[in-house]
Amino acid sequence: MEKEAASFNSDLPGGEEEEEEEEEGERSTEEPVVSLAEVLAENEELEKEARAVLGGSDHERCSYSQGAVKRQALYACSTCTPPGEEPAGICLACSYECHGTHKLFELYTKRNFLCDCGNNKFKNLQCKLLPEKATVNPTNKYNDNFYGLYCVCKRPYPDPDDEIPDEMIQCIVCEDWFHGRHLGAVPPDSGDFHEMVCQACMDRCPFLWAYAPQLAVSTVAKLTPAAEGGVEEEIKKENGVDHQIKAAKEKLTQSEPSTSSGSDCSATVKNEAPICKFQALKVKENRKKGTATFWPHNWRSKLCTCNECMKMYSELEVSFLTDECDTVLAYENKGTSDQEADRTDPLMDTLSNMNRVQQVELICEYNDLKTELTDYLRRFADEGTVVKREDIQQFFEEFQSRKRRRTDRMQYYCS
Q1: How does pLDDT run across 142-198, given as a tens digit for each residue?
Q2: What is the C-alpha to C-alpha distance for residues 297 and 392, in angstroms, rounded to an integer?
Q3: CA nearest 116: which of 143, 95, 147?
Q4: Closest Cα partner for 300 from 280, 273, 329, 320?
Q5: Entry's InterPro entries (predicted)?
Q6: Helix H or strand E segment including 113
Q7: Which homologous superfamily is 150-225+271-343 in?
Q8: Which of 28, 136, 347, 356 has the highest local Cβ count within 10 Å?
């Protein structure tokens, strides 16, 4: 691009050429220029993420009246419940209405939670949306996230003192967030796994180790944690699986229904398994323990749902693992679909209030505008130049002028 500019300016007088070069130099030291398409694409992606995270939550009504919501966006108010006070979580609507000017920690989503806003944990605040609440919510579960601390390192996110680039991954059992380098194993690429169970939760739910050799995504173990600054020595997971493991895998996958977290979640899990899959898998375990595990899409449907196993899940308080609709993906898909259904197209709303002639005229004008604007902007893209405010203003002035000339030439006939 610089070569083309230099060639173009070669015919200019010396002084003007130098000025042009100085201006080019000044522009090159400024922030990188992004195109309108990039801005729109980024904005669309941000809107999509917001719809996914917040779409299943009501931004106007406190969720407390709904009981322990299966999954919702939650926040913790550092202003009302700072470290040293009892932890508390508030719903999306209360974060807007009751804590709008406070310092909040975004907790993403939590399962089976009742909004605490205004209860006894808040000494000087009453909920504006729903003041009639119980003094406490004993079924709620809390962790250090409610104080803005995450992972086994108990650090904030983002951490101003941490210069190591790393992603945060949420455990689906305890719902804490962990640095990838603190999971005891190198996480697979983000697209290769669907959910993660941290090391502590694997120790608390040892039955998952029986499923891990067949269902979990292969990882690379760490001998030296990256957090200590040492060089990571990696060993690949052993690929050998004896005939007992293979036979158990065949029993596990045989006649399994194909379900999806994004599908209709009204279907109930049927306890039709004639034998216990878990017992069939309790053979030689060749997977190294002491690390987090990563699980693919649809792995929950492979868990045994016999009476004994369901009792075990209940005792360990992880019955939600048999619920495909408990997943964050199911929540996000529901939120996105609900939001898309509620979104209205302003153009279609306008058209619905017009007669047929007006509709045709508006559609024609819209198509003309779209075509001319596309052609106009393509010139800038082809030349690699930046579209300025005055360029857009000039386009619309010329477009209106052309529209008036076309209108003046039109002849109307009365039938």
Answers
A1: 999 999 999 999 999 989 999 988 999 999 999 999 999 999 999 998 789 999 999
A2: 47
A3: 95
A4: 320
A5: UBR7, UBR7-like_UBR-box, Znf_FYVE_PHD, Znf_RING/FYVE/PHD, Znf_UBR
A6: strand 104-113
A7: Zinc/RING finger domain, C3HC4 (zinc finger) (3.30.40.10)
A8: 136
